[in-house]
Amino acid sequence: MISPRIAGVAVLLLAGAAQAVEFNQVQPEKTKLVFTSKQMGVPVDGGFGRLTGQIRFDPAEPSAASARLEIDLSSIDAGSAEATEEVVGKQWLNVKAFPTAGFQSTSVKALGGDRFEAVGQLTIKGQTRELTAPFTFKQEGAAGVFDGVFVLKRLDFGIGEGTWSDVSTVANEIQIKFHVVAASQHENVLQPH
Amino acid sequence: MIPATPYSATAKLAHWLIAALILAAFPLGLYMHELSLSPEKLRLYSYHKWIGMTVLLLFMPRLLWRLVRPPPALLPGPAWQLKLAEATHWLLYLLMAAVPLCGWLMSSAKGFQVVYLGLVPLPDLVGKDQALGTLLADLHSSLAWALMVLIVVHAAAALKHHLIDRDDTLRRILPFVKLPSGDTRP
User: Fold this and answer.
1) Which residue, of A60, A88, B22, B92, has the fewest CB within 10 Å?
2) What is the distance between the terminal CA atoms of chain B, rounded to a whole angstrom?
3) What's the predicted TM-score (pTM) here?
């Protein structure tokens, strides 16, 4: 026999679980943006330390999702002190003139399972290009975790000008991995409608 | 007079090939280190690493060859010179392996994998560790200088034998030189 009270709690929990949960609190300290460039065939890892953003994402309704991320380019680590000093300079990111890079989503769609795809505008060094980034979404406790990889062609944004535009030394393709953690607003989670 | 026996063709080839590689890698290392970051610098660093890895690659068969087919005995001379020659040869062997190995370790510690000829990724020997990388860079440089000093001593001794003693010490390692058995110079 199931008591009416337990049944009632179960119904409430089910209602809560089926409830739309929006992940919208980006947690910068858990969010990571790393990249791998290739120099003479040698993969070199780097990353960015500071990233802020606004995300609205409900896995049940991806088409309503949006993301805006801003990267503080001066927080770059290009894998070595010498390279880090070089890439903030004019020929590379020109951080003095363009201190941030930004991504603004225009659409998000479900690809099935936990896979999604975001399309948006990526702006680096004053140049804006459309970017398509597939990602996976996983819920971990009250947080949503977005993981994705895409390839950026540095010359599309004028990253590495002059002698550096020679892609036989530093490859044009830069692999970028993002790991974004966003919490849901807690009061929404079990709030019955 | 003692008849001079030449080195085997394999030993001669290994000697001169590795000598050429080391004598190319050393000035290249000095030069590239002073460059400011540029595509040229990245290319030269890669070439330097590839040369070093080639020396390391050739070292093992060369050492094995020496152990399996010992070189001809040293020509007679004062005991201290024979001892010095013996010590120099083994130190040269030690350093021709230690210098590139140390360079490989240093590259790993600095977070740059070695990709041989841009094609074959070699495993990182240690994890990324800047302090260790700096230490290994100093060691790599010191050992390379020590190797250069030994090479100068080694070459000076060979020239002394050739020009002053006028014996076959140098001639028997030279390529394309035939020593008629029992041929001795005055």
Assistant:
1) A60
2) 9
3) 0.84
